[in-house]
Specification:
This protein has 4 helices and 8 strands. With 206 residues, the protein is an alpha+beta fold. It has one domain. The strands form 3 sheets. A 4-stranded mixed beta sheet has the order 3-4-5-6.
Length: 206
Amino acid sequence: MRDQDSSVRTIPKGVIAGLAAVVVAVGSGVAWWTWRTAQPQAGSPDGAPAITASPPDITQVPIEQNVQIYWLKSTGDRFELVPSTVAVAASGQPDALLKSAFETMLQDSPNPAEFTSTIPANTELRQISIRPDGVHVDLSEAFTTGGGSASMSGRLGQVIYTATTLDPQAAVWISVGGKPLDVLGGEGLIVDQPMTRSSFDQNFSL
């Protein structure tokens, strides 16, 4: 009969060594993870998460866009409103685009061989905004000075058509020096508020 101890199988030394290596590797991994979680985040000395800067808002970056401003063209015995496409720098917001269009119309002189303007040269844009009820334009008091009825009608048409360059159906509210414009010029042209391209064409002749 064999000795009872001889029936116990001996585990090879290689297997024991392999198991020991696994235990050491796992233990090292746990220790490394524990150490990393205890460290402060890079760029933050108090251990708080680093704050990443938000990307810039591209809608606020001025870009060049094409818009139409309106001049007057002589046809012999009368004027007609004619659009001129110009490149303006704006942030991409409709309000900013209209503001740039108006400033271009008020500051630039049209080509005298083709177009003219009856808006007084020292007229300034005080404010322009797009609201639920239409486009609101506030001009300086110089807008109402000088010229007869044809001149007044022409400058009114330039304002209304340029203000509606983004939406031809929009209503336009005009004020001068912060006050609603009711009568224009010494001859007393009645300005109904708001005005549209259609109402201007029906009530004013150039």
